[in-house]
Amino acid sequence: MANGILTLNPNFPERNPEGEKLPLIEAPVGAGIGLALANFLKDKNKENLPEKIDEEKTPQQEPPEGEPDLLPELTKQTAEEVIRKEIKEKEPLNKIQTWDKFLTKEQVEKASKENNIPIKDFEIPALQKQITFRKHNFGYDILFDKKRVGELIDITQSLIDFGTQQGNKKTFNLVFIDRDGTNQRDAVSTIDGIDFAKEKAKKLVSQDLLRDTTEPLYPSLRDIFQNLEYDKKGNPAELQKEVKKLKEIQEKNKKAYGGFIDKPLTGNSRYI
How far apart, in Å, do the first and last CA atoms of the chain sit? Predict the structure, then answer.
């Protein structure tokens, strides 16, 4: 035990009468001094601390007085640009125009009113005006806006060979192109006489250019045309690439299996 200090009675702490005289500490004070001191220092530290300053919120910047707030307008422009981009990405490769290729809106409305004809009725004639024909050895290519969309195939000789040809007029199968640019397997119609065949081809082609696809496995000519890539001559681009490859293969085979040689073989033949 420390010199001069007796065990303190919790109620009446006393000094050792024989030891060094120490100040008497009253029980309430002795028992609570630690707590009192801690509280005192705590309050003192509060006094010494700088006063708390309310954090100022950054004020929302307003446009200078007299000047327009451009933020909403810029946001609107950005949204419009995104929409235009999405529309552009969905735009078809080939656009189908009807009366708008030849007439303005005001002109077609005037013609519609004067002739008492619905504007929709101007679509078919406008499409037919853009359909032309390109002759080849087996019939005619059908072109819309100078791009191949079908064919009139002359089947007259085949009918003669089978003994089924009737009359003196030529007979044609009308076919549309498929998604890869080749002719569809099934004919749309079989028509006698070139003049009537062209007239009917224009009618059927223009009708299908206005028709949306209802069965995914059987796309309309409208969807085929709009999504098909063409070359500068109006032919389906991918198909022409395949035709070119085929011709190159045929040319190589021709050189490999036949040709002219310098020295004659047995029998004086110069051809392999």
Answer: 130
